[in-house]
Amino acid sequence: MNGQSDIAEHPAAYDVVVVGGGNAALCAAIAARRAGASVIVLEAASKFYRGGNTRHTRNMRCAHDAATATLSGPYSEDEFWDDLVRVTDGQTNEQLARMMIRESKDMLDWIFDQGVRFQPSLGGTLSLGRTNSFFLGGGRAMLNALYLTAERLGVDVLYEAEVVALDIDGDRFHAATVQRKEGRMRIRGKALVAASGGFESNIEKLVEGWGEIARNFLIRGTPNNRGTVLDMLLGADVDSVGDPTQCHAVAIDARAPKYDGGIITRLDCVVFGIVVNRNAERFYDEGEDVWPKRYAIWGRLVATQPDQIAYIIFDAKSANLFMPSLYPAIEAASIGELAAKFDLDPEKLTETVAQFNAAVHEGSFDPDTLDDCHTENLTPPKTHWARRIDTGPYYAYPVRPGITFTYLGVRVDHEARMMMKAGGPAANMYAAGEIMAGNVLGRGYAAGIGMTIGSVFGRIAGRGAARHAAQ
């Protein structure tokens, strides 16, 4: 395998080569095939583990004008834009973001036409029944539907086909080399769609940006997203976008596996209690905003705490208000006993809870809206959903930063074409999904936006690649 002679040539040349196997890749492949192109999908994972992080998703956020059978009300383009600006603190490409939001309005019908089915939001799912559409059967069922449609349309799929080299001359793609069990193979194409995810499972690459604290991070998604294709593209003078330390990072159960724990390790109970660090001290407002718009800040917050660990403390009143995690909460008869189970200072935690309780101004508690239950004269405050933690038994979850995907990626234009460092778009290279999410997400996150980015830009990239191949 040391020379060019060791690389077999694939017998077919394709119009469109899609690198990746998740939602963005499949939307691109289907769109390109429906536009008449010959398409191959190169998936590094095995068939069982295909789909990258899409396997762990359950919904997508799309603008829509009215309630439907599975959505409880309208969600306008302007409201979507306002939500995006708020969670990113304005760090987004407005032209691309507004285009994505506009295009998202017909994505639900298009996705449905590809065989994906939806269901109403379940109770406890982040109050998303109006804004987000939930996949019937979750992300894996969605993937199965997209793969079935792609295969019926004649899209070729290679599994366990890791791309190890890209033949790029200037701004033009010519071929991809994949590593398979039987050896290396070169696959030629008239256009490339890169939809191969971020680099969140590459711990050494995370350490480059975050420092040694990144070794304490857990990876919610696939272990296959190591950023190798991104590195190849940036090394070929494709322009970059985003900050290597910005990512979709949530607080997940500290007992979760290092990789692939998925959505069931996420904890949605922060707003119903308090969060303390190893010193048994609170460090942020747990009730700042409704959970779908703020849950993704907690991974970064925990990352800044000692040993990158924190503890969510709540009582019996709140025990049934959220979706349970994979692991049961730790239970105790008193706050002091609860502290001891986590090797926290019992006196300090008891004092922290007492100070919080004394500051609570209880109003009309409503877990679904910005209620008037808040603290007074407490730093940091809890601005909504503040209730005294005074009803045993008492519970706690240990949490660590759970990285879903990273935002450093390739810069694209409104046609999903990669932009070159020298200026202007690449001749025949497109990108979709996490590998270009930093164009829309400079920071922050709101539930379901990752799937929106993948679906919208995937379809645009697939259509554009097919158009180029036909010229």
TrEMBL record:
Annotated signal sequence range: none
Cofactor(s) annotated in UniProt: FAD
Coiled coil (UniProt feature): none
Transmembrane segments: none
InterPro entries: CobZ (IPR012831), FAD-dep_OxRdtase_2_FAD-bd (IPR003953), FAD-oxidoreductase_2 (IPR050315), FAD/NAD-bd_sf (IPR036188), Succ_DH/fumarate_Rdtase_cat_sf (IPR027477)
All residue ranges annotated as the FAD-dependent oxidoreductase 2 FAD-binding domain in the record: 15-442
Annotated keywords: FAD, Flavoprotein, Oxidoreductase
Keyword Lipid biosynthesis: no
PANTHER family the UniProt entry points to: FAD-DEPENDENT OXIDOREDUCTASE 2 FAD BINDING DOMAIN-CONTAINING PROTEIN, FUMARATE REDUCTASE
Protein name: FAD-dependent tricarballylate dehydrogenase TcuA
Organism: Bradyrhizobium ontarionense
Gene label: tcuA
